[in-house]
UniProtKB/TrEMBL annotation:
Gene3D superfamilies linked to this entry: Homeodomain-like, Tetracycline Repressor, domain 2
Lineage: Bacteria, Pseudomonadati, Bacteroidota, Cytophagia, Cytophagales
Keywords: DNA-binding
Name of the featured protein: TetR/AcrR family transcriptional regulator
Record-linked Pfam families: TetR_N (PF00440)
Positions of the HTH tetR-type domain: 6-66
Regions recorded as binding DNA: 29-48
GO molecular function: DNA binding
Amino acid sequence: MLNKDEIIKAKILEGANKLFQRYGLNKTTMEDIAKDAGKGKSTLYYYFKSKEEIFQAIISREKDDFFLMLQGEIAKSPTAWEKFKTFYLKRFEMMKKMANLYTVLVSETREAMFATGGDCHWRKKYDEKEIVILKSILEYGMISGEFRILSDSELNRLAFVLTSAQRSIEFDLIMYDKLDEMHDYLQLLMQLVMNGLKK
């Protein structure tokens, strides 16, 4: 059961999420967020130092929930190919669900980073999680005999490249309002990876 502070923080984050999606990070003020939550600005500042911190908390919460669900779904997939498909398709579903928030994230991350002194630890944290998941899928494929054997350095580089390529595709398609085409692009990326990894 949530305590009083957790309930207040959850209400602040829920309202701020809607405001960010509607108006963007730059146009949303701490006053807007406080008003939406039915709280004074002083109460808001008790829980969060800035709107950028609120924004990062929202992204962190969404990503944490996603990774829990993703790891469960990947564990159910019987082959490395199915695990890859699950990874990319579930990410695609998440991107569609969070499209408005991610549009804000993509277009305004630079400003948010400057406002927080260049701190982008949340991005690094989730990049690392994705790399660990992709490495585990690649290792599973090598053990099951689906993929050729990769050296440790090849494994690390490939997981990094896959994570970077996927994110670049997602961000660009959101930026250019082509989210509906994302599934096709991710399928192509997956097929290229599979062809390159076959024994």
